[in-house]
């Protein structure tokens, strides 16, 4: 209080360049309020000074003052630099600022004193530092003492009082906030410390870093691990990385300390670390003293713990956190596994945990209490760390534990962000004797209840921490409906999890880390109340234990200050496409109900031996899979097996020794008792966890077995004729068989993208037909990383087929951004050491070089063309390999592929396209086929041989839907090497069968038009080639040398008298002028009232503008103009049409007269002979009466 009464005076050093030699001598005594003002000024000016204490009864220093100044009055200053000496605190303060203040003026509090600010510190300290101690030594020490402090430090005041009462001279090194002597302090002491006491505990923090370096409690000087460095005892840390770079661990150390508030019963301190560009980025760990040896994280998970030394002498297991204790200091731990992940808890339960010094006669407890989860990431069910061997206690705010990189907090360049993490409560308690040590856990749980009731706290002073009266509340009732349960009647969503998180898709809350989350559970009737919500935009999410699916309320919720929002009744229509045939497990977001094996006896944690529900926490259970299934993978028969006994808790790899592993395939076998229903069956699949895994689907029709990644839809394997995989297994799985696009946002570079689905579904599963869907839906969060089109990749498998079908549905609903697509194709990359002979038509077949031959060759003008200089097969030396050499027109690009011609049992892989209806550019457009790799393509859309004019351009918001395919991937085989080339003939025959079957009747997409839904066009084409002659446009001036064309209705005939193209007039010397054609007609009757209509259809236009006038040839502006139109150049390219133009021109009746009328058609643009229009049809209509 003595320090607080002088406010902040004497706390900060305001002069940044002060580093003067010590020339000042100050004679004073600590209890003197006027002396204090001088010391405050010295702190603010960052000046050091020799201090000579002059308490009452002084035997040395008062005599010096009397001799030097003539009287015994304080304070008294001597400046040896200027030779000045003076009394009076006000004069001294002014002098110091004039001499050393760099133009600054002293703070008002340094020049004046009130009873409170001047004398209150002396009164509160009961006159300490005023009188000489009666037992002080008359002789000072040989060297001066050195004190680093600043005037307003309450702990430094106590030291100065002692120095004064002992009359010990000392050098005062001022180190106020911002002082240039901070480094000297660190060099001298090793740290800059702040000590905060509240009468129960004392906490020491480093200044300005903010590390907790000491906690004193119940007579123990420091319950933190003093053998650790100061920055490794209690700290805030982050693990961060720049995009694409490795992660860094960083303990956050402040660079600026400040006191936010200092009241009688409340102190809040700030240690700010501001990021700067020169630095070119959550966890609160605390390392507790080793005497803490008993850890508790819930009522049952409590035990004595090993030490860090025990871990250091142990054996590291599969990952560094897991250690087998081989030589522990306590023999009871020998043979146990210590692993911090064995003590993880879900966020909703991770509220209090910590340590007890259980062997002490006066045991104490150290607890981390988290009263709210609103600032944690991943929602209520996310698992995270608690306390573990060290002894270490954590409060984890954000982590990727048990979730992976999907929950990483990612920030775009320039993105703004602010969020408050905490407060959390570090709680200490004590027991009177060893027998009551475990009561400390119960007390900590009681303290948690008190903290929860007090949340949100009303005492944090940060404006960013939202106070209780500023928060909102949401009420409602959640009901569920399943039309196949209880007749579809509404049911109460009992014990459902209901929460608010940042807007996103259903279920996105579990991947969300940036925003706040607020969760609750419903009561037995489905009612819920979500309290203490920070204002902002949210979606409401829910899930119901025992029911499949994720709920999301259909509207964004805006919470304002103090708002109470009643959503009333919400109905969750559970995902369901039909009645249940069978099910495995319980939809509760956990695999706890499945079979968890016993751990290896030599790798146990004894804590869980008697807790069956916690058995999954034991180390190494994944390796028990190969013990239970040594030869064959798990087979589960519906109606025979039980999931709690026969379904292994984790679908893991098979350990085959020598640190090698292989994929595993589990089988679900069931009997379909009834006839197969028409329509789609649905396989609902819920995964509780996944680690670097890919759940694949294998479809086997007895001839071909195809493996697909789930949910991406990549073809990762094709097994045929005894070969495990005819695709290139050395490629990454996404680089074997896939659909890809090349696209760009307008004005930006092109991007190549393999399409990977995010949602798998079974479209149909019949006895002889399976169709699978891998849907990738575009979302705004994808920005420029994914082509803005919904893409559904489909695969069809039919019984008896030697192959499978593939097609894709591209769909753009309203609201998607603009984009350009230049390529859509299907790609298969075959095993490079197997396929070596390529065939694309009868006369285009050959052995092919390899990709390695290309890599060792010489690139030519463009990268696709390579001169083979060192091929593995000498016959290719000197040849050029270029995939464009094997292009063919769409009309002929129907079957192509590869043969492994050197095999004793050759097989063929063929791409068959039974129709070109979905390809771009028409029948004569050239495109790619197969090429060195070996690679086989099916090109749906490309700009090859056409350029950007055939790009698929989509305006913002433009809708679109098109089916590409199906195409048939066909495999065949021959009995001997001599018959290998017969595989081409067989593939051609298969093409004929596919063409005859087109359009297929088996695809189940409603967007694929079935045979009986399609139309037909018949006709006869006759050819008159006269228009194909060159230069016909120039004949116009021969036929109309002086005047332009005039056409009289009822007299002329358009076949003889209407020139085929309205062109310019050639004036010679490459100059041209516009032409005006006249249509003359007689109006036999009176003029009708209303508008006449001139219907005008143009078959072609080239850089032209057609103006129309009625009876007034020179009127401007014209009655109608097309504006500049056309670029198809049909006139000069021997065509009769280009792009079609239609115009309906309203003509007010007053433009016509009874009798003769003339319509003037002027094509006014005339810089070349080829500008003009070609008419298709002209009609004048009278008003309707």
Automatic annotation (TrEMBL):
PROSITE patterns, alphabetized: GLUTAREDOXIN_1, GLUTAREDOXIN_2, GST_NTER
Top EC category: lyase
Domain GST N-terminal: 22-104
Catalytic activity: Endotype eliminative cleavage of L-alpha-rhamnopyranosyl-(1->4)-alpha-D-galactopyranosyluronic acid bonds of rhamnogalacturonan I domains in ramified hairy regions of pectin leaving L-rhamnopyranose at the reducing end and 4-deoxy-4,5-unsaturated D-galactopyranosyluronic acid at the non-reducing end
GO molecular function: carbohydrate binding; rhamnogalacturonan endolyase activity
Chief location bin: secreted
Keyword Cell division in annotation: no
A Gene Ontology BP annotation from the UniProt entry: carbohydrate metabolic process
Annotated compartments: Secreted
UniProt KW keywords: Lyase, Secreted, Signal
EC numbers: 4.2.2.23
GO CC terms in record: extracellular region
InterPro entries noted in UniProt: Carb-bd-like_fold, Gal_mutarotase_sf_dom, Galactose-bd-like_sf, GH-type_carb-bd, GLR_AS, Glutathione_S-Trfase_N, Polysacch_Lyase_4, RG-lyase_II
Family membership: Belongs to the polysaccharide lyase 4 family.
Protein name: rhamnogalacturonan endolyase
Source organism per UniProt: Lupinus angustifolius (Narrow-leaved blue lupine)
Lineage of source species: Eukaryota, Viridiplantae, Streptophyta, Embryophyta, Tracheophyta
